[in-house]
């Protein structure tokens, strides 16, 4: 005896089939158009995160040596490979430079062109050096003139001050000597007057 229940709305309900001793429960699958979009988005995000997290874990564990023996081996290989790579790079650069010179100076015209270019560069450097020397000499001469002018001005000011002080001292001395002489003359005249009056 089998009972089947279904509804008209389209949702799936379990169908129970009773037999002789076994019971089966089956569910009908809904079409893709009627699935909820949230569950599909959740599944897609879970798949993306799991796929993005797997390679990073494998990458982070694969580059590191697992034992001390492997670490020593990696260091030994690095100690051998680094100078070898540096010497090979230096050789490649030397070969490229030699090839560049060979292609640049292949003909007489190119050689003369390069020599003229070097000559122009040398002339430019010489002119720049001469200009710097002239500027330095002009600056030095200007500073020397300014210092000499300042020294001469200070010497003139000092000489004028000394002369002014000397003249003021001399005037004071002359004035004081005149006063002393007038006093002496007055004293002498007073003494003579007293002598004449006493006699």
Largest sheet: 3 strands, antiparallel
Low-confidence stretches: 1-17, 19-27, 55-61
Helical percentage: over 70%
The helix tally amounts to 3
Strand tally: 3
Instruction: Output the strand order for the largest sheet.
Output: 1-2-3
What is the structural class?
mainly alpha
Arithmetic mean of pLDDT: 75
Q: State Rg.
A: 58 Å
Q: How large a portion of the residues is in β-strands, by DSSP E?
A: 5-15%
In whole angstroms, how far apart are the ends? Answer: 192 Å
Order of helices and strands: EEEHHH
Principal-axis shape:
elongated
Features of the shown structure:
199 residues; three-stranded antiparallel sheet; 77% helix; 3 helices; mainly alpha; disordered N terminus
């Amino acid at each position: 005896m089998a009972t089947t229940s279904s509804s008209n709305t389209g949702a799936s309900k379990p169908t129970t089939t009773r037999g002789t001793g076994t019971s089966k429960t089956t569910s009908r699958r809904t079409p893709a158009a009627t699935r909820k979009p949230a569950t599909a988005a959740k599944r897609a995000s879970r798949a993306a995160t799991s796929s993005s997290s797997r390679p990073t874990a494998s990458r982070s564990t694969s580059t590191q040596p697992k034992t001390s023996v492997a670490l020593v081996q990696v260091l030994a290989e690095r100690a051998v490979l680094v100078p070898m790579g540096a010497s090979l790079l230096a050789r490649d650069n030397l070969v490229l430079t030699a090839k560049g010179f060979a292609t640049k100076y292949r003909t007489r015209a190119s050689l003369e062109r390069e020599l003229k270019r070097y000559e122009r560069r040398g002339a430019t450097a010489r002119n720049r050096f001469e200009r710097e020397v002239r500027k330095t000499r002009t600056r030095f001469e200007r500073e020397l003139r300014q210092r000499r002018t300042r020294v001469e001005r200070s010497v003139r000011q000092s000489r004028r001050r000394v002369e002014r002080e000397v003249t003021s001292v001399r005037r004071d001395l002359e004035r004081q000597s005149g006063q002393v002489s007038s006093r002496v003359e007055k004293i002498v005249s007073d003494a003579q007057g007293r002598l004449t009056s006493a006699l």
